[in-house]
Amino acid sequence: MDPAADTPVVIVTGGRQPLLRRAVHGVAPPLWLAGPDPGLGAAVGRPDAEVLDVDPAAGFAAAAGRALDHARARGHDAVLLLNDDAALLAGARERLVDAVARPGVGAAGAVVLDEDG
């Protein structure tokens, strides 16, 4: 089994903000949306996304914690957390999962680029 393909991508969102549709585009399952609206996946063109009910007023850390608890309960060792205004470039998921699989590594971060690179 490919660890990257099994690692959930979790996008923390306060709702249907305009960049969320771009953030979910091209993300292979499993895709989880941590937000307040059960219809969020369908609203952004991803009815296959699992929506974790999270109050946006609780903030990113609370939503991330909820996603991590959910992942552990389902047997996942890792998740890839994204803000709802981010988008993954091709190969990013695999590189990040490979990085945290190394001995002694507990977290990895990506280079963040604006639309101009």
Describe what you observe in this structure.
With 117 residues, the protein is of the alpha/beta class. It has five helices and four strands. It has helices spanning 3-6, 20-24, 40-43, 60-73, 92-100, and strands at 9-12, 31-35, 50-53, 80-83. Strands 3-2-1-4 form a four-stranded parallel beta sheet. Strand 1 (9-12), helix 2 and strand 2 (31-35) form a beta-alpha-beta unit. The protein is globular. The termini are far apart.
Percent helix: 25-40%
Count of DSSP strands:
4
Sketch the major β-sheet: 4 strands, parallel
Shape: globular
> How far apart are the first and last residues' alpha carbons, in Å?
33 Å
Please list the strands of the largest sheet in the order they lie side by side: 3-2-1-4
Our Rg estimate from Cα atoms comes to: 14 Å
Class from secondary-structure proportions: alpha/beta
Give the helices and strands as they follow along the chain.
HEHEHEHEH
Unreliable parts = none
Short description:
The chain is α/β, with parallel strands linked by helices and 117 residues long. It is 31% helix and 15% strand.
Question: What are the SSEs and their pairings?
Answer:
Elements: H1 3-6, E1 9-12, H2 20-24, E2 31-35, H3 40-43, E3 50-53, H4 60-73, E4 80-83, H5 92-100
Parallel strand pairs: 1-2, 1-4, 2-3
Keywords:
117 residues; alpha/beta; four-stranded parallel sheet; 5 helices
